[in-house]
Amino acid sequence: MSPVFPTVREVLALDPVRHGAPRLVAGDAGLDAPVRWVHVAEVPDIATLLGGGELVLTTGIGLPADDAGLRAFIGDLADVGVSGLVVELGRRYVSGVPRVMAAAAERRGLPLVELRRATPFVRITEAVHALIVDAQLTELRATEEIHQRFTELSVEGAGPAEVVRQAAELAGCPVVLENLSRQVLAYDPAGESAELLLDGWEQHSRRIRPAGRTAYDADSGWLVTTVGARGQDWGRLLLRWPGGGDLAAGTTLGGRPAGTPPTRLTILVERAASTLALGRLIRRDAEGLERQIHRTLLTALLDHSRPVDEVALRARALGVTLERRHLVGVVVRHRLDDPAAEAAGESTVAAESPEAGPARLRDLAEAVGQALREAKLTGLTSAVDDQAVGALLALPDPAAEERALTAFAAALRRIRLDAAPARPAVAGAVPPDAVIVAAGSGVGGLREARRSLIEARQIADAARRDRRDLPIFRLPHVGLAGLLHLLRDEPRVQTFVERELGALLAHDARHPRDQLLGTLRAYLEQGRNKSAAAAAAHLSRPAFYERLARIARILDVDLDSVEACLSLHVALLALDAIRTP
310 and 230 in one domain? Predict the structure, then answer.
């Protein structure tokens, strides 16, 4: 995209200027400075009327006659940030501008140009101003293209990778999408080295701390905006614009401080962030109409997108009565890490083709529906994400809960075992019984059904690495670490980690040779026993105590407080879960 303002070099190439036989006598280092406007002046104190970025035209008839005055005149122009000075010869100066003027301009890096032939200044101003207006129209068209492009992406339901790619293409700069824990979700290096872009990303990102929801961090060269919707922020979109060091500090260009990105780039990242946030809210489903309605109703319960009375009414129309029933949320999912696949050195997910995953999920959804029918149970059932199938069982009373769950789990296992011989053996494929059945706590009404469904999904995710062959996993079967692992993508958990440990993580990012997180981990894992922790960390006790004191200052906590240490320990476990795939 074209810059809004032409440079001094481009102005000198215009026909009305070339007609005057221009000759650069000083300040060639400033030829790439942008020209915001052209101003004609014949008085020595013109600098007080300028705002920076102007190209000053003069015949010199009003300039000082003494050397000190000429030096002061050039200094004032340079101080205010003008782009250059053009002097027409013939009226005040015949053979050339005074040497003292040229020397002063060279020292300040201010382009000083002689016009050796008489030229109407109005033609120069008209040409330059027309160039500026054309460039501004180009900028407006580019902004319109940004809006149109991201509107199309929103309508098409483009994924994060495509949105980031389009943003990088429009900007011509690297773009990175990260979550609240500084993990990269998508990126496009815009032709640069991806390895260099992402090397040590978390530590680098933690040093990027712009002020505001959308802001430019001049120290790092990254334009940053927050990504989120409905009051729930879940990431940041970053665009690297390295132009901050090219212009003199303190000047302004087109109403913005020098060294800040063009307005179009700010518009671009904000529109891209909006598209990403909207895309996260969009859910597509290609299942049958009845299954779509089941999924719509389960999603409505999970997301609070519909009143529970409406959900009950629509479910009853499907033959599933939810009012005055004991409700139990159930989630069935494949194990992500199967022992057979691990022995082969690959994960079950990586081993299958892109088409195999959705087909496997459809098979699982059909098996769950059949198991409900064989166990003579009623409820809503549908895939709830790319890995799991959910069901909301409607039971006559709480006493029937254990019996119903046992019957459902047994029917599901039998159905999948019966189906196994008909399937071709595939190396690394998941065995037919390699699924997890998880159930949440039973609830007495539809308004509480969401809690049971979410609990079941959390248990299923947390138990995916559990090798116990349990028919049904319930909440007592998963520990805190497992619970935090399944919640690792939850923005509120990431926010909690940042609140508790962010200052320490930022310190470690700034001081790679002085890592304090390991010291805190050793202290907490040893039950706050400082002597044992010092030995575990291979440090002398005085050195270990000194590091603990620094951690306490950085985090502003009392490490002798049981409550504070408990909060920090939970945050550490959550951080481990976030960093573990």
Answer: no
